[in-house]
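Sequence only, no structure available. Ideas?
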Amino acid sequence: MNNLHIYNKWPIAREGLPFILLSLSLTCLFLFLNMFLPSLFFCLITLFVIFFFRDPERKCNQIPGSVISPADGKIIEIRKVKGKDNPLEQDAVKISIFMSIFNVHVNRSPVTATIRHISYHPGKFFSANLDKASEQNERNIVCMETDAHQHIAVIQIAGLIARRIVCWIEEGDKVLQGQRFGLIRFGSRLEVFMADDSRITVQPGQKVKAGETIVGYLQ
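Reply:
I predicted one. C-alpha cells follow.
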C-alpha cells in the first residue's frame, strides 16, 4: 500500500457516488413517468447530496510545528483534559469542531505524521454539538506521531444524522499535513488532542477550514 496515496482527485468524495446515482435515477424515473413533483423533489435531493459530498482542493502551507484543522466547521469547545480522559494518555488540550450539514465533510490530517493506532467504537447518535456526544456517540480514534515524536489524536464522531464514519488510512501509514484521511456522512464532530503546552491560535465560535486554518502550534 502506498502510504502517501491521495485518496480522491475528484471534486466529489467517492463515498457520495451511490447516493448521487440513486437520487439521480429516481429523478429520471419520475420524469419518465411524467410525475413532475416527485422528479423535482429528487432533483433537489440530488443537488443537495452533490453539495454535501463536495471535496474541494485545499492549499496547505505546512508551517513547521503547526497543527491545522482536520475539519470544516465551528470551534465549539477548547479545554484542557487529564491523561485518563483522552487518547494521548497525558495532559492535553482538546479542540472540538462541529460540522453542520452545510460544511465540507472530508477530513484532513492536522500534521505530517505516522499513524500509530486506530480504534473504532460503536455508540449512540446524539446531536454532535452536545458534550455527551464525545463519549457516547459512534466514534473513530486516530493517534498520530510526528517525526519529532510529538503525539496528536483526532476523533471522528458521528452525529444525530450521520450514521457512517469513513476512514481511509491504516495503522503504519505515513500521512502528510492536509492529506485527506476520511469523512463522516451528514453532520458530525471532530476533536483534536495535542500536548497541554501547545500554543492554541483559535477560540470558541471561530469558523475553521480543513487543511488551511492553523489551530495551534506544537512546542
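The chain has two domains: 14-52, 66-217.
Hope that gets you unstuck.
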